[in-house]
Design brief:
By secondary structure, this protein is α/β, with parallel strands linked by helices. It has helices at residues 5-24, 35-41, 48-55, 62-71, 76-90, 106-117, 136-147, 153-166, 184-188, 194-211, 257-273, 277-293; strands at residues 120-125, 177-183, 214-218, 230-234, 242-247, 250-254. It has twelve helices and six strands. The mean pLDDT is 91.
Length: 294
């Protein structure tokens, strides 16, 4: 069985947070604290174990974390946050998506794990509706026709089920803020035919009114539009956001500060091209009415 992706993601997030604390720390003389300094503090001769912590390849023992936090002179909020991340991460034993790990690309399952813990999700898609908001009928039709030469019926069913399970985050008490920037073409393409698309548009309107999903439609009249699908995930606190791009074989991630900062600016540009959330909702209603008269 594949290694728990939830545990892997938790280790990576912890490692990134721990590394940032070290990089921000200074010795009493004002010098940066290096990995070898951290290694010596936990009585190691090489940096290997500290490097593994910071790469998300291993968890420290609680005593090791306490030693590092003292070395870094971490404040109380930072210490509590890292201690909580360690406790929660090491307690992970099973998640719902583990049942899908052997059937889908590892990068896709990694994305699902990130999505499940995000506080803010911004999805940008030009000509299909995002998987998080697809009805089963829409998703089944889309998957069948785009992969009918390679995917078996059972694989299509499992793909639909995976997308349906992802929607559980929209029903949490502490559900994330979900924003969707979407090209008008995605709303007008009759995937599955008239009835399937009517039900899908109804589902989008319900997600907006009942679950707070924010839509920003880029209309045909706009001077430019989206050209590829990607997702921007934020986690709150001091944890860095990540971006994930859809690919035929899974997902590719962008995690560096330089890359995510650039994408934030790109998102602002897209919002300027798009209709407001209120006008976008009305646009979806209008398209739904037009389709119902066909």
């Amino acid at each position: 069985m594949a290694v728990s992706t939830a545990g892997m993601v938790a280790r990576q997030r912890f490692g990134e947070a721990l590394k940032k604390v070290r990089l921000d720390a200074r010795t009493p003389k004002g010098a940066p604290i290096k990995q070898i300094d951290a290694a010596r503090a936990i009585k190691r001769r090489t940096i290997d174990r500290v490097s593994r912590f910071e790469r998300g390849a291993a968890w420290p023992e609680p005593a090791e974390l306490q030693t590092l936090l003292r070395l870094y002179d971490a404040d109380i909020p930072t210490s509590v946050r890292l201690e909580t991340m360690l406790e929660a991460g090491t307690a992970i034993t099973e998640t719902w998506w583990q049942g899908f790990e052997d059937e889908f690309p590892e990068s896709l399952i990694e994305f699902v794990a990130y999505e499940d813990s995000a506080r803010e999700i911004t999805t940008c898609t030009p000509n299909i509706l995002p998987g998080l908001l697809q009805t089963r009928e829409y998703g089944r039709t889309l998957t069948h026709y785009l992969a009918k030469s390679t995917a078996k019926p059972q694989s299509v069913d499992r793909s639909v089920e995976l997308r349906a399970r992802r929607r559980d985050i929209l029903f949490k008490d502490s559900r994330p803020t979900v924003e969707v920037l979407i090209g008008e073409a995605a709303l007008r393409q009759k995937v599955g035919g008239r009835d399937v698309m009517l039900a899908q548009l109804d589902a989008l309107l319900e997600d907006a009114t009942e679950r707070g999903v924010i839509f920003r439609v880029i209309p045909f009249e706009a001077n430019a539009t989206l050209t590829y699908t990607f997702h921007f995930l934020s986690f709150g606190g001091t944890e860095s956001p990540i971006a994930a791009f859809d690919a035929m074989t899974g997902m590719t991630f962008r995690k560096s500060l330089k890359e995510t900062r650039g994408l934030k600016g790109f998102l602002d540009d897209l919002r300027e091209l798009a209709l407001s959330p209120t006008d976008s909702f009305e646009k979806i209603e209008t398209i739904r009415k037009e389709l119902s008269r066909d």
